[in-house]
Design a protein that fits this description.
Blueprint lengths: L14 E7 L4 H9 L2 E7 L4 E6 L4 H5 L4 E6 L18 H4 L2 H8 L7 E6 L8 H6 L17 E4 L6 H12 L4 E6 L4 H13 L4 E4 L13 H11 L3 E5 L6 E2 L2 E2 L2 E4 L4 E2 L3 H6 L7 E3 L11 E5 L3 E9 L9 E8 L4 E6 L3 H4 L3 E8 L2 E11 L6 E8 L2 E4 L8 E3 L12 E8 L15 E5 L10 E8 L3 E5 L1 E3 L8 E3 L2 H18 L5 H11 L8 H4 L6 H7 L6 E3 L11 E3 L4 E3 L6 E4 L5 E3 L4 E4 L3 E8 L12 E7 L16
Parallel strand pairs: 5-7, 5-8, 6-7, 8-9, 9-24, 24-27
Antiparallel strand pairs: 1-3, 1-4, 2-3, 10-11, 12-21, 12-23, 13-14, 14-20, 15-20, 15-22, 16-19, 16-21, 17-18, 17-20, 25-26, 28-29, 30-32, 31-35, 33-36, 34-35, 36-37
Amino acid sequence: MSGGGSLVFGPGERVLVTARVAATGGRLLGQLAGAGGHVAFVDRARRTVTLLVAPSSLDEVRSVPGVDYLGEVLAPAAAAFCPVGKFVTEGVTQLDVKQARAKYHVDGAGITIGILADSYNFLGGASKDVASGQLPGRTNPCGYKTPVVVLHDGGTTDEGRAMAQIVHAIAPASRIIFASGNGGRPEMAARILALARAGAKVIVDDVAYYDEPLYQQSEVAVAIDRVEAEGVTYFVAAGDSNKVVGGRNAGSYEGLHFRPATCQPEVVAADRGSSAIECNNFATAGPPDTTDRLTLAGRGSLQVILGWNEPVDGIRTELHLALVNEATGRVQALAHANNFASEQAFQQLTTQVSAGRYALVVIRYRGAGTPRFKFIMIHADNLSGVQFDKNRAIDVVGPTVFGHSAALGASSVASVPYYTDLAPDSFSSFGPAIDCYGPVHGVKPARPLVRCVSKQVDIAATDGGQNSFFGTGSPHRFWGTSAAAPHAAVVAALQLQYRPCASPVSVMAAQAASARRVGNFGPSAVGRGLLDAVTAVGDTKCGQRIAFAVLGGHRDGQRRFSVARLAEATSRLRVALRSATPAVCAVTRWGFVTLLAAGRCTIVASQAGNRAFGPASPVARSFWVSPAALRPWPSLLVGVV
């Protein structure tokens, strides 16, 4: 059974239950956790605890002293078949979408949303989804007859169609266009531009290319920045690579510089037998230690990417990555691509592992540089122990956001399960990501930035919502930041319908201001918090900018003049003017300038906004005041800028 009145399941087929308890203190909560109950929500006023419990552990949880009653949580029923089909993501409830639609009379009408994902209709279920009301199209029973436009399809999972169901559930009147993100980074960048040319005002993607540079904005991120500058609001999944080991986030290791040490003989023998190679010393004191040891509790896959702080097309160092099986004493897997040929600071190690102890080794194969480097465990099944699992003075452990998930022009979206507001999913990637080089353009290596730039997760939204076909369980549940990102994107469509003049910056700012706390988690995990549609739509403001003419043409001796008409805001709201150099010139609130002394006069124009318009970026104009300008006879000002 599915739909209203059915059981609610979470990850691992655990069932959602409510326990009525004698007290809600830490001791009882600990006993519930020890019995197999994952605490999802605590209502201290009513003395109830909502838990996720494997069916085999229900009796043990029920027998915990202090548990007076244990009952299942029943799934809510959709209010009606229309405006959308039977399977409605619980993000509609968690993000307060119904209230936003009712209060502001928005349903996405007039807004086009672009989706980039694996595929849309490889499995052939799209027509059935249209007929059942899950998607818009000619046979949609609820009157939404505009079909999804597919610019390019590819892949095999139809994850893009599941994302489209989320969009249709929240903004059923919006227009949807789809393009596959498969085909490589350059092709994905081109498809981002194609979606924008096709009319998308909001674009969302859940595509991750593991070979995107870790310390530089890729060509995908460049395309995102370009469409954002053209007025497109862009959302991207933060990623699902976080690993929690012993209560710590341990999915990545970053050395602030490579620390050369002598490699162990088995690594030298495996890496082409070169005796000149050196390995990174993970130790910060005492004898060198060239391994980061991992403990795996069972069979599974291990996939690790390595990147370092050198620009695409400007490689000076070749690093390799080895996995040593400590049981056999041999190198089980080696990532050793020719970086001087690829011109990319990237290695990928993929292998199958059994239970046991392994060690990751970072090798400097060619070059004499000591660059900053980072490896991320994209997949690490059954990881139960990591040797270096906390930050030290010259190492950083944990952040797993990378690639265009950290694009500066996009909103990076973390995931929070539909059944709780207390914590993100354990797999939801943490920030920050770091850029130390300019973005990729052409084949000329980018220059280093004056200082490295950090980018955090921006916002959190729902995952695990139900849909007609994609994901685990019955009903099917769509887990991951791939599900969270379209939730945030489609709320942006509601915002843009309410304020068509809103800029991407205004849309994202309203979402950030709306966010609710997620337990005790901070920006690295959930950005500003869990998105709230009611507040986000209501707080969305139009963008505005200031046009401020270049100052010049004043005559010496004209010590008082007006610049009020030289600065205008596109909102038509009055611009405020002030002097940034009060010793040289003064400015009244009405724009009259008085020259006081020789030097550089700088006047700043600003507009703070109102209920409909967000603040404008200040604009400054300057000119030089010569000593002659303060005399009572005319001569021209010089040095105008």
